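Comment on both lines for my students:
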Amino acid sequence: MIWVLSLSLITILSVIAGLRKRKPLYFLVPVASLFTFMLVKVIMVPLPFVDTVRFIFQLRG
């Protein structure tokens, strides 16, 4: 739950900063933080990294 709150806070703050300073770089911060969070969660899986990524992309819903 703390991850959701922290990523929400990062998103809100970067959108406010992007609107005030009119710099599009601030709008990439939430995307980068979500990508980093996802990468960390994949790395935490006890399988080798390549096998984990292969497993994720083989899932069909």
Remarks:
- The CA atoms of residues 7 and 33 lie 7 Å apart.
- Helices lie at 2-21, 29-43, 49-58.
- The two ends are 25 Å apart (CA to CA).
- The chain has a mean pLDDT of 87.
